[in-house]
Amino acid sequence: MKIAVDFDGTIVEHAYPSIGKEIPFAIDTLKRLQQDLHCRLVLWTVREGKSLEEAVAFCRERGLEFYAVNKNNPEEIGGSRKISADFYIDDRNLGGLPDWGIIYQMVKENLSFEEVYLNNEMKKKRFCWFKK
Can you give the residue ranges of every domain in the chain? Predict the structure, then answer.
């Protein structure tokens, strides 16, 4: 499974062109997706040149390596910045960026955000029913 992951606002807080503070659990979750589910992660960002190198180095220093950076596979030369992936993790998603625990659950169980949301709402209702 290939997952395209944005950097600013997704792995780190927005501070472009600087690198913002790491968003809690982002890198740990991405590493677990690689280790547990054997996902190929593609860094998919508007960064280029030196700021892109800094973003890759930031992740690498924390033990996160990408399958490819701003391309579909490591061997691709030039071409479109349109990335082909099974999932896209980006803070600009409709509805925003879910919690990283929910992201892991969505990928692991191949669930849509709607399915996770409805499942969590049902759990709340069952919990409320038991409390009464």
Answer: 2-131
SS3 16: coil
Per residue in 55-65, is it b (16+ CB within 10 Å) or e — as a string? bbebbeeeebe
Q: Which architecture does CATH list for 2-131?
A: 3-Layer(aba) Sandwich (3.40)
pLDDT-derived band at 46, boundaries 50, 70, 90: very high
Name the nearest CA neighbour of 34 among 11, 60, 66, 77: 66
Tell which residue, 32, 81, 89, 86, has the closest CA to residue 52.
Answer: 81
pTM (predicted TM-score): 0.82
Contact 88, 78 (CB under 8 A): no
- CB contact at 8 A, 49 and 56: no
